[in-house]
Design a protein that fits this description.
alpha/beta; Glucose Oxidase, domain 1; about 40% helix; about 20% strand
Length: about 650
């Protein structure tokens, strides 16, 4: 490998970024000067993007909302004394967000404990909250924000970890974005929300248990963001495929921004030095390095006509977590099988122990990387490390060697993805075929374990034969599309270099062998009986679902809390009652199945795809969810006889 990154260089780049603690836009001008001095950089562009109106880019939506300037939360004791519970803003402790400023001396609020805060029964003691704030422990924080603030109208939310674990409930909660949500979510209300650490939450919980009335004093200062936000990009032009861009990005929105930007600088300088010194050939594809002020600027840029549509993107970002440091590699969405996450995971794993890499499943509306259409799978690499910065600082106690590992892995990925050519096709195809074969074999093994636990009648066995065959054929189709993406990525001439059909044929033989083995396992208890594959009878609900055509009328799947604003009381009540069930279903991914408006697809067909990717789905529940989306004006439903029966679709 020609690109080398060490801790000394990263420490030097970090020292050059002392000015990032300044919040003025002059820091972008100084960043532009640093990027322009990097070897191999052809041009540096500093632009501004208006964010005065709501902007949408696929899964991501942005509405201008106040930005925190200061935040403090105090527990007010019965004797008048006060104890600091939280200060500053951060993903793990501090202000999550606020839509208003309090009086200069702060405002006092009564606290109501609602337990988990995700069920209607949690709120039976208090119907109207008025100027009271809600204390809930951190299970499914977005659902608590929706119910306590958007629906119940509480003045604020204090979110703590689970009392029995003193931990947030899941990795997705530990990486919960430090933002309250779009202002339109809360109507005319202007709430605030704090994330409490384990110790602060325990002190508040003890006060609620011992005192008749518990109060807190909140001191919050916010300001509206500027109408235009800066965005900085630097390009290294490609040699023969300059029109294809590979994007490397980071932003200034996190407390660890300085370390992420230092890693970006080191990646850029390392690649540039290797090219200038002749140690590495110039990249075939253009490398674009982007620094934004945060998600609002990113979304505004992507929604504009100026933004490129890269063929791949990597994000150098450092996220906070309470758990062990991990390098996270985001998976592809189910609608876009691709070899890129596999390749990125393998390249990153070369720089770190296998247990340090974690594959993160794609979740619509909460994906790690917002840069590209979700129908085009794009890998993201992040470092999730414990620890947080002090209020107002852009530094953290993330070990420097972890950041070196992140930068090294991203540099390796960037160098490889920017330089891949048709000569690399056999190697990539072989690696992708091996990964595909492994996934098909693992799927067959899981099916076999499931069948072993079941006691089947001959009728059940006949249905199981058909289900196994369909399941593995669907897996084969997905893996064939992954192999095809290798040639698509490398260009038009790559398909002729090595016949993709040969690799697909070998996978088909593997799938057939797995089907035969599973059939033998199913038929073993029925020796001498004539049991043939026969699909189970189609239910009336499935027959209707096969005739239902769904057309999306919006960009990107909406989160549940924004859907509630568009519904009547009955719709909101149903949504709240089934919130847990919907959380367990791929409700957001459901809408990705209808992303191609020019290809009419039935609800049943998309539901079967989801069942293949995520496990059993509740057809009735998801149908009701689609009806709610229709009432909110987000989709159009129509029954058409021309789409085919479930048997034809299967």
């Amino acid at each position: 490998m020609s690109v080398r990154i060490d801790a000394r260089g990263l420490r030097r780049s970090l020292a050059e970024l002392d000015f990032l603690d300044d919040t003025s836009d002059e820091r972008f001008e100084r960043l532009a000067a640093l990027l322009g001095q990097s070897p191999g950089v052809d041009r540096v562009e500093l632009e501004s993007h208006a964010v005065g109106a709501t902007a949408r880019h696929f899964d991501w939506t942005f509405e201008p909302s106040p930005q925190p300037r200061s935040a403090e939360l105090y527990l007010v004791r019965s004797d008048g004394s006060e104890e600091l519970l939280a200060a500053g803003d951060g993903a793990l402790e501090g202000l999550i967000g606020s839509l208003r400023s309090t009086d200069p001396g702060g405002e006092v609020f009564e606290v109501v404990d609602v337990g988990a805060g995700t069920h209607a029964g949690d709120y039976q003691r208090v119907r109207k909250f008025g100027e009271r704030v809600v204390f809930a422990w951190g299970h499914r924080p977005r659902a608590v924000v929706h119910e306590a603030l958007a629906v119940r109208g509480a003045a604020g939310l204090l979110l703590g970890p689970r009392p029995e674990t003193a931990e947030l409930s899941a990795p997705r909660d530990a990486l919960f974005a430090a933002q309250l949500g779009a202002p339109s979510t809360f109507g005319g209300k202007r709430p605030f929300a704090f994330q409490l650490g384990p110790r602060s939450a325990e002190r508040l919980r003890a006060a609620l248990a011992s005192e008749e009335t518990t109060r807190v004093r909140a001191c919050v200062g916010v300001q509206m963001p500027p109408r235009e936000l800066p965005l900085l990009s630097a390009c290294m032009a490609g040699s023969d495929l300059a029109g294809e861009e590979l994007l490397l990005a980071c932003d200034l929105s996190r407390p660890q921004s300085a370390l992420g930007i230092a890693a970006l600088l080191e990646v850029m300088r390392a690649i540039g030095r290797a090219v200038v010194a002749g140690e590495s050939p110039p990249p075939r594809r253009t490398l674009r390095f982007v620094i934004t002020s945060g998600l609002p600027a990113t979304v505004a840029w992507l929604a504009s006509d100026k933004a490129p549509r890269p063929i791949a993107a990597l994000q150098l970002s450092i996220a906070q977590t309470r758990r062990q440091p991990r390098l996270l590699v985001q998976d592809a969405p189910p609608s876009a099988p691709t070899f890129l996450p596999d390749l990125v995971e393998r390249l990153v794993a070369e720089q770190a122990p296998p247990q340090a890499c974690l594959r993160v499943p794609y979740r619509a509306g909460s994906s790690v990387l917002p840069f590209v259409d979700p129908s085009v799978a794009v890998p993201a690499v992040l470092l999730a490390a414990p620890g947080s910065a002090r209020p107002g600082e852009r530094r953290s106690n993330v070990p420097l060697q972890l950041a070196v590992t992140l930068a090294h892995g991203v540099a390796r990925c960037a160098e490889t993805l920017a330089s891949l050519g048709e000569r690399d096709l056999p190697r990539l195809l072989a690696a992708s075929e091996l990964a595909a074969a492994s996934r098909i074999a693992a799927r067959a093994r899981r099916l076999g374990e499931t069948l072993h636990e079941r006691e089947m009648s001959s009728a059940d066995a006949a249905a199981a034969l058909a289900d196994v065959e369909e399941d593995l054929h669907r897996a084969l189709d997905d893996e064939a599309r992954v192999l095809d993406s290798v040639a698509r990525y490398l260009g038009a001439g790559a398909r002729a270099a090595v016949p993709i059909a040969d690799a697909t044929g070998e996978l088909r033989q593997l799938a057939r062998a797995a089907v035969r083995a599973l059939h033998a396992q199913i038929l073993a208890p029925f020796e001498g009986e004539n049991v043939t594959a026969r699909a189970r009878p189609v239910t009336p609900l499935e027959r209707r679902a096969s005739l239902l055509r769904v057309r999306r009328t919006f960009v990107g799947p909406p989160p549940l809390h924004s859907l509630a604003r568009e519904l009547d009381d009955d719709g909101r009540a149903w949504l709240l009652h089934h919130a847990d069930a919907l959380q367990a279903q791929p409700a957001a991914e459901l809408l990705l199945g209808f992303v191609r408006a020019d290809e009419p697809r039935s609800f049943y067909e998309v539901a079967r795809d989801l069942e293949h990717a995520h496990g059993p789905v509740d057809l009735k529940l998801l149908w009701r969810y689609l009806e709610l989306l229709e009432r909110a004006g987000l989709v159009e439903l129509a029954e058409e006889q021309s789409l085919g029966t479930p048997q034809e679709i299967g």
